[in-house]
Specification:
With about 675 residues, the protein is α+β, with helices and mostly antiparallel strands. The chain contains 28 helices and 23 strands.
């Protein structure tokens, strides 16, 4: 029973809208009182010694690898607040933090920093410690903290679990209590789920993975359930969304098989998803609940379990691309919209490049060049604005090559923190550090052995790693971290960038020797506004979004699409059409009423604007260097044009990054990164 003082203090707390939340805080306060903690004394601000922190970090290195990129993204989502993002282990010791400099200084005064322990027994009621006890997402705001010294904080924390239900640690956003926002808890919970999903995919990267939801449009989002299935059909693990939808514990789930729970066999799943254009598969749970699912699997490992002969299907005279991993919602063109099948490979003999031939002369020229270097051991460098489909071309190049039966592994060099990219690329050896995964971890380069390695945003790779990558490409050997043995590797290399690499070489931010190693053939993908095949692309995207259901556009919508300049290129077009298709529902024609308001405003403005003269060439062709004595380029580079477009969108949105992100069809993270890069270049 709470003491009168405790009950009175609790009654004065500010966030009592939810009775369950109030009860959570009260129970935590009672535990703290039972431990003999003082509310008014200065709390223990000591941190573990440096060697112990190093051991804790090594023990949890895998958690750090999965969490760090998500933490950076989460911080940018809370950019408007004075806050920080923290990762702790399962004992409450802070392993890693990122945040605003001004707030980090304040936070250090209460030991909200790496090495500090924020369990309830150490710091009283707080989001991290209370989440560890209750194993539930927790908000602790201002005076709800047991210790008065922490009352200036507002904290939102969510526990992180592995696929077997073991707690790995806690993800937390802490900030000044005046900056409290209701949406922060939702962002933290989604981020924790992202980490858990990454962990599951890593644990079961060779398993069949079923992605499902009762509503097919939620597949590919954080709302989807994911279960891992063994070759014998046994269920190996699942994410929290799957357990919630199935109403099972992790242990109960592992007592089932694919057949007993979903009423479908492994062979039937493999057969259904031979083609990336396959629609979601319908399933029924034993209780009669219908579900829709997609499957991801490694083709060389799983194809023998299917029973149907692979055939080429024709659509408008173009072969569809058969691949083991399903295309996410949005079909094959969705690869240009940022969705990436996890473990690809392809059936040989079907042409991915032909699928990209949609009538535009510039694309025809690009594809003709690319076909000539297929299977010739010549590196491919793809240039172009964000959203033009650079990865889409890379995947088609892989699917048409002799390496198609081996993996296609994509690495976004801009999305992995510099401190982690080395382990991500090269992997690490068993025993390389305390707590390392048994048998170590295979890096992305070795995962691509025999297949294709796609290095996206290669211009963002740190200089020190450029040197090591060059050595790997020259020697065709990889040395994992913690190992003194080199492992032979055979990969085709496709790289991509929106940056002007020659300018970066002049600025000494990109290695010239690596550039010449990567640019066996350089091609530039045209921006969507420069292409003549817009409506063909529109039809393909709509066909993929509706799983083949006929859906037309009225004349006004066609005029708006054709008048728009598409700064986000195919990625933005896909987002606009996906939204319109959902809004249309069962209707047969997309009209103005089905388009989002921000797109309508921009498109209408451009439709009414006077015609501009044709754009001049933005840069010298990569195959045609500028004449001797000429400058590197006479007009703006692709990168400069892209930055201008992004800045214009931000300005027109009144500085609102979320609005600019929706209008451009690119992520907030991308906008922040590019604007930060521009700022560093101008200094």
């Amino acid at each position: 029973m709470a003491t009168p003082t405790l009950a009175r203090d609790h009654a004065a707390l500010p966030a009592l809208g939810d009775p369950m939340h109030a009860d959570t805080i009260l129970q935590s306060h009672e535990r703290c009182a039972a431990l003999g903690l003082s509310r008014i004394d200065r709390p223990d601000h000591s941190t573990v010694i440096r060697s112990d922190l190093a051991v804790a970090r090594e023990r949890n290195l895998r958690l750090h690898l999965h969490a760090a990129p998500v933490m950076e993204l989460l911080l940018e989502q809370t950019m408007a607040t004075q806050s920080m993002v923290l990762l702790t282990d399962a004992q409450g010791t802070v392993l890693h933090s990122v945040g605003h400099d001004a707030f980090l200084q304040r936070a250090s005064k209460v030991a909200l920093a790496p090495g500090a322990n924020w369990s309830e027994s150490s710091k009283g009621t707080n989001a991290i410690g209370t989440a560890l006890v209750d194993e539930l997402p927790t908000v602790v705001h201002a005076g709800e903290h047991y210790m008065h010294a922490n009352g200036f904080l507002t904290c939102s924390a969510a526990p992180i679990f592995d696929p077997r239900g073991n707690m790995l640690g806690v993800l937390d956003v802490s900030g000044d209590h005046h900056s409290y926002h209701l949406h922060t808890m939702g962002l933290v919970k989604m981020s924790a789920r992202m980490i858990e999903n990454h962990w599951l995919s890593d644990d079961f990267r060779h398993a069949l993975r079923i992605h499902f939801h009762s509503r097919p449009e939620f597949i590919g989002t954080l709302m989807e359930g994911i279960v891992a299935v063994g070759r014998d059909g046994k269920l190996l693990g699942a994410n929290r969304s799957a357990l919630d939808q199935l109403r099972l514990s992790g242990a109960a789930l592992r007592m089932n098989s694919l057949t007993t729970l979903f009423s479908v066999t492994v062979g039937a799943v493999i057969d259904h998803f031979r083609s990336p254009m396959a629609p979601p598969m319908a399933m029924v749970l034993p209780n009669g609940q219908p579900l829709h699912m997609r499957a991801v699997f490694n083709w060389p490992t799983w194809h023998a379990l299917g029973s149907v002969t692979i055939d080429a299907h024709h659509d408008d005279g173009v072969d569809t691309v058969s691949a083991p991993a399903p295309a996410p919602a949005g079909g094959f063109f969705a690869a240009a919209a940022g969705t990436r099948p996890a473990t690809p490979g392809a059936s040989p003999g079907l042409s991915g490049l032909r699928y990209l031939q949609t009538g535009d002369a510039q694309m025809e020229a690009v594809i003709t060049k690319v076909k000539r270097v297929l299977n010739r051991d010549i590196s491919l460098l793809v240039m172009g604005e964000t959203g033009t489909g650079k990865e889409l071309l890379a995947r088609a190049f892989h699917q048409d090559s002799d390496r198609a039966r081996y993996p296609f592994v994509a690495v976004n060099c801009a999305s992995i923190p510099e401190s982690l990219i080395e382990a991500e690329l090269f992997g690490y050896e068993e025993g390389a550090f305390t707590g390392a995964r048994r048998k170590g971890a295979t890096g992305k380069i070795l995962q691509a052995n025999g297949g294709t390695l796609f290095l996206d945003e290669i211009g963002d790779m740190p200089l020190v790693l450029q040197a090591r990558l060059l050595r790997v490409l020259q020697e065709r050997q990889v040395t994992p971290l913690g190992s003194d043995k080199s492992v032979p590797v055979d990969v085709a290399v496709v790289s991509a960038t929106h940056r002007a690499l020659r300018d970066m070489i002049s600025a000494h931010t990109f290695r010239e020797d690596l550039y010449y190693r990567l640019n066996g053939l350089v091609v530039r993908l045209p921006a969507l506004r420069e292409r003549s095949d817009l409506m063909t692309i529109v039809r393909k995207i709509l066909r993929a979004e509706t799983n083949g259901r006929p859906l037309d556009l009225d004349d006004e919508v066609i005029r708006l699409l054709q008048a728009y300049h598409w700064p986000g290129n195919i990625r933005q077009l896909t987002n606009v059409l996906r939204t319109a298709a959902v809004m249309a529902g069962s209707e047969m024609v997309i009209t103005r009423a089905h388009l989002s308001d921000d797109f309508l405003e921009d498109a209408q403005r451009e439709l009414q604007a006077p015609a501009e003269p044709p754009p001049q060439a933005t840069a010298a062709s990569p195959q045609q260097p500028a004449p001797a004595g000429a400058t590197a380029h006479d007009g703006p580079t692709l990168e400069e044009l892209e930055l201008r477009t992004i800045q214009r969108a931000v300005d027109e949105a009144g500085g609102n990054i979320s609005v600019a992100s929706r209008r451009l069809g690119i992520s907030r993270n991308t906008i922040y990164r590019k604007l930060r890069w521009r700022g560093s270049e101008s200094n």
